[in-house]
Write a structure and sequence with these properties.
three-stranded antiparallel beta sheet; two-stranded antiparallel sheet; 5 strands
């Protein structure tokens, strides 16, 4: 997210990704910008899914071991 300060007021600006660069429209010849990187929640989703799969695998393994133990 790109923020621009003009006349002492910060406003969120529209920006376009151009490869590794950000393009913004600027009014006048001078302005202060602040670029804030927003963290993606995608890694949280991936970690949660992976954790859930590990839990399911452990439950299946424990269930199989219990069945073997009860058969003997």
């Amino acid at each position: 997210v790109v923020w621009g300060c003009k006349d002492g007021i910060w406003r969120e600006l529209e920006s376009k990704a151009r490869g590794e660069y950000l393009q913004v429209d600027m009014a006048g010849t001078e302005q202060i910008f602040c670029i804030v990187q927003q963290t993606s929640s995608l890694w949280i989703i991936i970690a949660g899914t992976a954790g859930g799969l590990v839990l399911v695998a452990l439950l299946v393994l424990v269930g199989k071991k219990r069945k073997r133990f009860h058969k003997k």
